[in-house]
Amino acid sequence: MTEQELLQEALEWQEHIRKLITATDDELYHKRSKVFDWLLERVQVLEKENKQLKADGNKSIEFETYRKCVRGEIDEI
Length: 77
Known about the structure:
By secondary structure, this protein is mainly α. Helix content is about 80%, strand content about 0%. The protein contains 3 helices and no strands. The radius of gyration is 16 Å and the shape is elongated. It starts with a helix and ends in a 6-residue tail after the last helix. The model has no long low-confidence stretch (mean pLDDT about 85).
């Protein structure tokens, strides 16, 4: 699967999870759902930023550092 397909699958799971947790009062499920929501939001923000950087053609040091962070090649900036 491509990254876009995986993201789409995750978004579909997010909707499925939301439907499931409406049937429970278990706080743990609600907490995990919020974490999942947060993770997906971060992925979407990073994808948008990455597209913008690519569109700008920015080959600066900041761009290269950003790419390495996203790829997990370095832990922090």
